[in-house]
Amino acid sequence: MGTRVAVNQVLRLAVRNATISTLCPRQFGRYYRQSRWCCSSTNQATQHNQDLNPPSGIPVTELSLRSFIDMGFTESQAEQIYESLANVRRGDSAKHILPTLTALFVLGLNPSSVKKCLEKCPELYTTKEAQLQQRISNLRKMGLVEGSLQRVVAHYPRILTVPLKRVKNVVMFLKEKCLFTSQQVTDIIRDCPAVVLENLDQLEYKFQYVYFRMGVKQAEMVKCRLFRYSLDEVRCRHTFLERRGLYETPDKKGQTTIINPNLDSILNVDQDTFLAHVAQASAEEYDVFKRLAAREWQEEELQQGRTEPDSDDEDDDEDVDDDDDREAKSGYEKRRKK
Amino acid sequence: MALLWDTSLLLRKVKDLRCLTPRRHRVKEKWAATRPKLPPTRLAVHHFDATYSTQLGQLWPSVRLAMLSERKYGALLNNFSHNAVLAELKAQGCVDFISEREREVPSCLEEKSEEPSDVSMKSSDVDGEQLSLSPNIKCLVFPRGDVTRFKPARPDKNSLLGYYLMDAASLLPCLALDVQEGHSVLDLCAAPGGKTLALLQTQAIRFLCINDSSVSRTLRLRKVLHSYVPKQLLTNENLRITSFDGTKWGEIESNTFDRVLVDVPCTTDRHSLMEDDNNIFSKSRTGERRRLPQLQLELLLAGIQAACPGGEILYSTCTLSQNQNLSVVEQAIYQAREKDGIHLQVVDLRPLTRMFGNTFHFAPDLHLGEMVIPHLAANFGPIYMCKLKRLT
């Protein structure tokens, strides 16, 4: 018993030391095998402990609180992981969890980061280790070197649950349709990893809106982290400025009669700064505008979905007064996008 | 020999290559024969940007934003129809902006109110000292910042519609006209009929003359009146609908009417920015647009001549442009004095801005008349109005 405790402590120390310095996979594998040996021996002794037995009858040898603690988690962290794992209904999740955790440690994340990843993205529990390795190596091939890679995974662990094909599709789309360079694509994935899960049509519309309507080129899009923002946010702020006369779409030669505010000052500021310095408008106006614009765009989408064109009322006037005696609906529908 | 011939031919061909000739020697074969084709709404926006940015200054971006966004309507209640429209709309949150106007307490009465005497102040008296309005007009609007839309009006059991949707600011000229019991009123450019309908709602007019220069628009006006007003009130004893040229009215009927409403054709700023159809900024209508101030002046002069001495004339447009608003009124006052010997007094409409300042945004510091400017939270207007009283 005493020796077992001592061995555990040694292993724990070893693991902790190992994670602080750069980890050598082979070394860790040895520690891992040794911890497994320890686990199996301790488990036999503690099998009478009902609380630790998982309800679904998974072989206990691979799972126990001890094994998590040995990997470097604190007791409370290990308990939480164990509980959430028990909640995952799939039968084979138990087999995957240790290799998955191993892979995450190999990546260079410390135990608390790993735990945060698992919390943010419970799907990681059910991801196969082979897929995980594939996806990580794909990210490496794209140019996400050490440092960036860890940061991306720590901030957005979901990227590891996205199928390889999807990530490749998005990358191909960005390179071929949007004409970003490879370096720019890497920067996009690094700064805005959620882009891999976005609908490609939406992505294309957003890109085209910013490229053509706002006249912003690829380099600036990447620098201002455009893909972090949703289409509605971008559209709302831009249309607000455009209708106030503060933003002009460049003509075919790329010229404008006024100086457009740059994309950074439009998107990367909070609403109050945007209203005070860029738009010079009141919060009330922007609030009403958001509601009006949301309704406009919704109706536009509905109209585009319809196959037959809208029928306008016959207009035999020479001049239409401010009074509008048409029915309300068609009066409201008389709108042109500016 | 053949070789020499070939090279000379080759050289001649080379000289024709455009990329090899320096730019200064190139001949441009085709020059643009026309201006770029921009839709009339774009032309309107450029025109307004040029004129109104200096005129309105810091206010212009907000006005521009409001005019390019969806407008806000008001529901003019039809006093002749009987259905539960008022209750329904109030349940949705609408408010009658006319009855909810600010009532001002003049300073002399404030001192008296400290004493425990019962000073019954009827709000109509208070207004009467400053500005009296046409009675019985009711119009519901959604509160400030609320962008809910009105549903189309439904006919009641007499097939009259419950309310008429129009720009609430368009009612201000009708209110300012101050139609009193037994007046005869002339509406010189009446179509499509919103203001005419409002005037009929007062039920105070002895005889209403309705005119519009266009026959087709007069027909539309008739349809509107038939949908809202019961037939017994549309007889020849109560009103007359004509399609004469309004500028000739001074020759037809002069010194006749107690009240004249001159709602002239103008560049209809809001419509010009949003609709390409019937847009006065289209290239084919440039001449018409340039002649507008002259036409407006003639119409106002005709209206002045048609009014009786002591009568009041109200000039209104739906544009922000100075040379269709103030300039026209100033010119008319001058010409009426010089040519016809008619002396006019400008009636101060500032009380109107105080009364309705909680519903509309008014342009500050206009030295003649008042103007409602669009703002996104109160997206009514633009409306300009100026009231003149005929002294002789």
Automatic annotation (TrEMBL), chain A:
GO CC entries: mitochondrion
Record field: compositional bias (Acidic residues): 310-325
Highest taxon listed in the record's lineage: Eukaryota
GO molecular function: nucleic acid binding
Family matches, as InterPro entries: MTERF, MTERF_sf
GO biological process entries: mitochondrial ribosome assembly; mitochondrial transcription
Keywords for this protein: Transit peptide
Location of region: Disordered: 299-338
Pfam assignment, any one: mTERF
Listed Basic and acidic residues bias regions: 326-338
Annotated PANTHER family: CGI-12 PROTEIN-RELATED (PTHR13068), TRANSCRIPTION TERMINATION FACTOR 4, MITOCHONDRIAL (PTHR13068:SF203)
Family note: Belongs to the mTERF family.
Name of the protein this chain belongs to: Mitochondrial transcription termination factor 4
Gene: MTERF4
From TrEMBL, chain B:
UniProt name for this protein: 5-cytosine rRNA methyltransferase NSUN4
Active site: 318
Domain SAM-dependent MTase RsmB/NOP-type: 97-391
SUPFAM superfamilies according to UniProt: S-adenosyl-L-methionine-dependent methyltransferases
GO terms for cellular component: mitochondrial large ribosomal subunit
Cited PROSITE patterns: SAM_MT_RSMB_NOP (PS51686)
Localization per Swiss-Prot or TrEMBL: Mitochondrion
InterPro entries, alphabetized: MeTrfase_RsmB-F_NOP2_cat, MeTrfase_RsmB-F_NOP2_dom, RCMT, SAM-dependent_MTases_sf
Transmembrane segments: none
Species this chain originates from: Oreochromis aureus (Israeli tilapia)
Keywords: Methyltransferase, Mitochondrion, RNA-binding, rRNA processing, S-adenosyl-L-methionine, Transferase, Transit peptide
